[in-house]
Amino acid sequence: MAFLEGNKVSKNFGGLAAVFDLDFQVGQGGIIGLIGPNGAGKTTLLNLISGSLTPSSGKISFKGQVISGLKPHLICRKGIARTFQSVKLFGNITVFQNIFLASVYGMRRDLGRVDRKREIEELLEFSGLAPKIGVLAKDLTIIEQKLVELTRALATEPDLLLLDEVIAGLNPAEIGLACKMIKQISDRGITIIMVEHVMSVIMSMSDRILVLNHGEKIADGPPEKISKDRKVIETYLGEDVPC
Amino acid sequence: MLILIITLALPSYSPPYIVLSVTSIYMYVTLAVSWTIFCAPTGYVSLATATFFGIGIYVLALLGKTFPLPVVILFGGLASLLFGVLVGLICLRLSGFYFAVFTFGLSELIRNSVLWWEHNVTGTVGRWIPSGSAGRVYYAMLVVVSMTVLMSYLIGRSKYGLALKGIGESEEAAEHVGINVTLHRIGLFAVSCFFMGMSGTAMATKFSYIDPNSAFNPLISFTPVLMSLFGGVGKGYGPIIGAVILTFISEVLLSRFPYFYTLIYGIIFIVVILFMPRGLVGVLTRRQQA
After folding, report:
1. Which residues of B touch A (CB under 8 A)?
2. How much is the ipTM here?
């Protein structure tokens, strides 16, 4: 029984197959990088795992239970959290309330009022957002918003975290900050699947990389192997590997 | 405390006309607040208030002689609530604009169906219904409005209220943090229908005669929307202020200028929308900040 497993998963949009007959297995722990050219089906795959989309055929199971076809809120409560390519916060409520909602609705444990508050404050401390606790989410900078989204995902106490281009649009200093936090999350024992376009980041962070092209898996392995893979270089990396 | 005594004792010292005016203020506050309970956080505009209000009226017409008034009012609320769940299941998957059109179409469909039914099946259009004294209607409505305002306050402070705000901000994010979006929406819609139904039943005791056109009057769908926007939906007390002021104005206009009543009312409303897009509450809070 794999931690996360996909069995001949396909997703068609009209006549176009965004993901086609994809088999994948992910064990517990570590960071898995998901890369590929634009339109390769990376975000679609994250959407399928998190329940935003239902596979056209095939099935996805998580910790031995089939999850494809379940509503997103149920998948969340089974322990899968995510962030979005374009940040999706609850803008007109405070940072604390953003995290509070995730904690109250997404967490499987039942906490008392005081414990819940302490838990949220600890999380905000962890992500460095403690000073912004009472600020409306829409008034934050981009990096802060991304951190809120990440913290909100953590507040549901996931076993698997799906990150869709967290570092896109950040400056180098901010990228360093985000990467450090992702590493720390991984150290807490949370398995991470991250989609990212910045190769240096993917190569240094990932324990394993999955490469998609036209909805199919073209390579799968540790970063060193991927960066030398003929097929990956041709379709995605190009001859001058930028790392 | 003084206000409480004045409100409670009003029917004993005021002429019936005043009592009925205040009663209709209570009615519009109930409708505006229950409309806002659902529509402000979710961003959905429901134009089916008349339907749920009308269901309440018909419940009184059908059961008014059989049961005591408080029980009938409760039934009126429950009937609306059940119908609200049904409507919610069907159409809360529609996005905002389509939802507004659908609910309006629905309320017209109900009105015409009942009309058709009375024409062809029962053979008589309209009916006399058991009516009560002005004082009785007043107290019934006072209870309903208090319950509505209390409920709106409690929802606003609860985790459900916050979840609904979240859904309104980003539905996708909400479902991915574990919020059951459909359940919350339908539940809240049903709660707002419950109060609309109760106010329909309570008010109906004042009417003594009803037919489908008066019970399901489309104006009842629009007026609470106007009142809520006039008061401002950003704060819980906005719709209350809006309903009180606009009902008062319309009572005055109706008695002073019966022929220009709707015209003046319309002009007031246009001015409000143009110059106070966030309603009275918006103007007040801006003053505070400045």
Report:
1. 159, 162-163, 165-166, 169-170, 172-181
2. 0.86
Q: Write the DSSP symbol of residue B119.
A: I
Within-domain flag for B98: yes
- In Å, how far from its chain's centre is CA A58? 21
Contact B170 A90 (CB under 8 A): yes
Quick one: average pLDDT of A163-184?
A: 90
Mean pLDDT over each residue of chain B, to the nearest integer? 85
CB atoms A90 and B180 under 8 Å: no
Task: Choose among B169, B172, B177: nearest Cβ to A152.
Answer: B177
Q: What is the pLDDT of residues A8-56, one digit of tens each?
A: 999 998 888 888 999 999 999 899 999 988 888 899 999 999 999 999 9
Instruction: Quote the minimal CA–CA distance from B148 to chain A in Å.
Output: 24
3-state helix, strand, coil in chain B (%, to 5): 80, 0, 20
Q: Do B176 and A97 touch (CB under 8 A)?
A: no
- Residue B265 Cα to chain centre, angstroms: 19
**Structural domain containing residue A112:** 86-157
Token pair 């803008």 is at which residue? A91
Q: Which domain holds residue B63?
A: 14-245
Q: Which of A33-42, B60-69, B99-108 has the lowest mean pLDDT?
A: B60-69
Residue A77's closest chain B neighbor by CA?
A: B178
Residue B46 lies in a domain: yes
- The last residue of one of the domains, among A108, A141, A157, is A157
**Residue A160: strand pairing partners:** A80, A191
Q: How far apart are alpha carbons B187 and B192 in whole angstroms?
A: 9
DSSP class of residue B121 equals I
Q: What is the pLDDT of residues B241-251, one digit of tens each?
A: 888 988 888 88
pLDDT score of B39? 87
What is the nearest CA distance from A227 to chain B, expressed in angstroms? 33
For residue B178, the chain A residues in CB contact (below 8 A) are 73, 76-77, 102, 105-107, 156
**Whole-prediction pTM:** 0.84
Same domain, A68 and A128: no
Contact B175 A73 (CB under 8 A): yes
Tell me whether residues A106 and B172 touch, CB distance under 8 A.
no
Positions of E strands within chain A: 4-13, 16-26, 31-35, 57-62, 65-66, 80-82, 160-164, 191-195, 208-213, 216-221
**Total tally of structural domains belonging to chain B:** 1
Q: Are A193 and A160 in contact (CB under 8 A)?
A: yes
Taking contacts as CB-CB distances below 8 angstroms, the residues of chain B near A49 are none
Pairwise CB contact (< 8 Å): B178 & A105: yes
In this prediction, residue A239 carries a pLDDT of 64
Strands B209-210 and A4-13 turn out to be unpaired
Q: Which pLDDT band, with edges at 50, 70 and 90, does A238 fall under?
A: confident
What chain A residue is nearest to B234 in terms of C-alpha separation?
A92
Nearest CA in chain B to A161: B176
